[in-house]
Give the backbone structure.
Amino acid sequence: MLEYEKLYYREKYKELERKYDSSIVFILSMLRKLNPSGILGFISSLTWQTGENYRKLREYLFSRAGVVRLLNLPFDVFKSAYVDTGIYILSKASSERYEIFRFPKRERLPSMEDISYTHVPVKLVVPPDYKIVLDPVAQQILTKASSNGLFASLGDFTISTQGLASNRYQLKTKANSENWYPFMAKGQVYRYCLEVDDVKYANMDEQPSLKRFYESGQKILIRRVVNRQDRLMATLFNGKMVFKKDINPFVITDKKWNLTYVLGILNSQLLSYLYVNTSSIATKDDFRQTTLAELRRLPIPSRQVGLDIHDRMVSLVKKMLTLHEKLPNTKSGHHRTVLQRQIAATDRQIDQLVYELYELHGKPRPTKSHRLDLAHRPDLARWGDGIRASAVYDRLREEEVTA
């Protein structure tokens, strides 16, 4: 979009922010043309539902118009579309609730018949972000944790930044001075491990404000991409190193928090479930990603929630880190299988502790369809406000997500 076009649309549509998405111009224009009882249907990308650049649009939709129905489609429904898409029904008049259904991302030839929509009360959509509630159960868990005084957002006790693009630097094979930091040119973060394949050196003289993220000291590294099992990927790192742009360092600022404990929570099945069910870009087909803003808002239980659980968590995460450290050097098929079984068993123990910390003692089970199997949690399946949570899960009997 050219600059004069941006200026025109900015004057005409105050709801546009940063990214000048032409589909938003169309939606706003059509809504203004509707009769008071009119209905608007359209097909567009999913990004507006929770994306940071669409807050003003969502505020407009929920305060001056109405959201009626959202149908999020699987991958590749439109072969020429390189973004995830959905069908949306909006109204000129406001409404007290909306309906939503999300197809499993890899479902082929989806049928539009006999869809069991989830009814979401609009009062669950709250300022300042007005994000679409994709899964009321996930939203309930997050809201309860965020309002608990013994929880804190990840961003409350850490500072974080996005990794740096290598093309911003002239990389060298040796450091010319102490201001030349090791730069991970090749490598990746996985759950509980960091693989470093190639290290160069980058001059940080021109980036003094960023040095604090890459100095020696304990930090959590979170990979920008969500993996194909819908899991967040994080590990610990204590050294001095600059990371590429798809690895985000979180540096502790409050020493009361044990990052080993926090790592176990971030790598848990529950936190991944909560994240992918409150972010429409976390399961995109083209680039499944996290954002710093959303990661910083994740509610983390403090040590005071359960002192015994805290200490057991730290012990189990240390064990997990050690097991992952041994795995690459284990060549024997038998010994490798034994290690993998120990990792899986330890992972399950960590998951159970996280369920207890979030007061989900019945262990709801995240599935490959990004939902919870609530057979063990009738209290969540039946919670009020007109949400037919149980109906959404009737068809979701797929096997559990594994690590």
Notes: Confidence is low (pLDDT under 50) at residues 367-371, 373-403. The first strand starts at residue 39 and ends at 45. The CA atoms of residues 329 and 336 lie 9 Å apart. The chain has two domains: 3-134, 154-373.
